[in-house]
Amino acid sequence: MTPTPMTSMDLKATGMLVLLAAVWGGSFFFGEIALSEVPPLTITLHRVFWAVPILAVIVWMKGLSIPRSMKTWAAYLVMGALNNVIPFSLIFWGQTQIDSGLASILNATTAMFAAVVAGVLLKDEPLTTKKVTGAALGIAGVAFIMGPNALTEFNPSNLAQLAILGATLSYAFAGVWGRIALSGQPPLVNALGMLVGSTLLMIPVVIFVDGAPSVALSSGTWAALLGMAALSTALAYILYFAILARAGAANLLLVTLLIPPFAIALGVTFLGEQMAAEAWIGFGIIALGFAVTDGRLFSNLRGRPKQATDND
Prior knowledge:
Layout: H1 11-34, H2 40-61, H3 70-94, H4 100-107, H5 110-121, H6 129-146, H7 156-181, H8 187-209, H9 219-252, H10 255-271, H11 277-294, H12 296-301
Helix pairs in contact: 1-4, 1-9, 1-10, 2-3, 2-8, 2-9, 3-7, 3-8, 4-10, 5-6, 5-7, 6-11
């Protein structure tokens, strides 16, 4: 990816970023509602399956061509596994043991881990001291949230928190795979292909593990599932690529820190969740790790504004 200078965001980009944070934060809320009737793997299938026709219509309206190469579709299967199947399933399973707000806080480590994985695997994104330091702070924040007992006692909630971290690592590898295997395709076509690949992977898994999905669900559960597919997946991808084109990858990463406040607010307001002090402190440490990884805040404090690039 060619670095694109970007130091500020206009009002429209800022609004889209906040909306993206809201719909992605809403995925944790929707997941919590759906889990009352639907198992985690089946929720993942619903999320990707119903998003496919929505994005297909968008791709068709834009006149984008669907690739026919088997190599490209094989890459979509891998991308679907890394960016949807594995992380969605781990996050939804994790939410069976921990609150949606806490899950969103742990998910905020994605940007830091992605920077380290890219630094190790991609030649044009060197592993720098700030990336390693940021990731170390992210791990420290997670360790603070989990507490010292995580090393000596088995606790389902600790296992759930580790599952969320596994999801963030899967996202990190997905980013690298996308750069290597799918950089030549239009972004929205990649999103559609990835969702189709995810659906093809999840159908046999769900049937084998959970059985055929039931349609006899409450209206609230159906609303959560369809909201997750339409808003937190299809609309989220449209916003994601629009912000990327308008404001650059460096500014887009700010969404990482905006997601938890939305998820926490929804959980507290509608689900009666309460966040412990350790979670807030841990989130603060994770946010500091993000700031170190991003680098711009500390450059500005030193009086030398740093020009952000897509490779920062």
